[in-house]
Amino acid sequence: MSDLAAVVQEAERLKNRDETALLTLIGLRERAIEIDPTLKDKVDLEPKYDSQTMGAIDEIKALGVRVLRRWNKELYGLVCSSTGDDKRERQAILDSLNLGEAGVIAAVAGALIALGVPAPVAAALAPLITKKFIWPAKDELCGAWGEGIKAQGS
Q1: How far apart are CA 85 and CA 87, in angstroms?
Q2: Phi and psi at residue 33, in whole multiples of 5°?
Q3: What is the DSSP annotation of the chain?
Q4: Cα dihedral 151, 10, 43, 122 in deg (nearest 10)
């Protein structure tokens, strides 16, 4: 199990990367973990792209999109659903909205880890989900977030 503080620190390091770079990194990290599951706790995993073992780079980015869609929906369900036993993670994310973007990234990273996302993937997903879905809609979080998921087409 990875140290949450290390995951948050890595998410903060990655937060200024653009969406394409984060999606590619998410895909690379996911593929590397598929190939070698012992990498799942290596928070700052920077896999080298290898077309022989990883496939085409467009496939890696598409994998990143699929990973984003899956965990974004799970996180949305955790935060915006009135059912479930995840009240602590839900409240942490909602409370973090008052702490600024860095606080939201930290709360999202923690919630993703609680959902079982591998540490290096959670660290890359947290800033992307925060920047793309949560932070722009912070005043009407669940409604706007749900609309963003629908707009993605799945």
Answers
A1: 6
A2: -70, -35
A3: ---HHHHHHHHHHHTTS-HHHHHHHHHHHHHHHHH-GGGGG-TT--PPP-HHHH--HHHHHHHHHHHHHHHHHHHHHHHH-S-SS-HHHHHHHHHHGGG-HHHHHHHHHHHHHHTT--HHHHHHHHHHHIIIIIGGGGGGHHHHHHHHHHHTT-
A4: -20
- Sequence spans of domains, the chain: 4-151
pTM of the predicted structure, to 2 decimals: 0.80
Q: Give the residue from 117, 115, 92, 114 showing the smallest Cα distance to 105.
A: 92
| Angle at 65 (CA atoms; ends 62, 69), nearest 5 degrees | 145
Tens digits of residue pLDDT in 23-80: 999 999 999 999 999 999 999 999 988 878 777 889 999 999 999 999 989 888 887 7
Contacts of 109 (CB under 8 A, 6+ apart): 4, 7, 8, 11, 122, 123, 126
- Please list, in sequence order, all residues whose beta carbon lies within 8 angstroms of the beta carbon of residue 117, skipping any fewer than 6 positions away: 71, 125
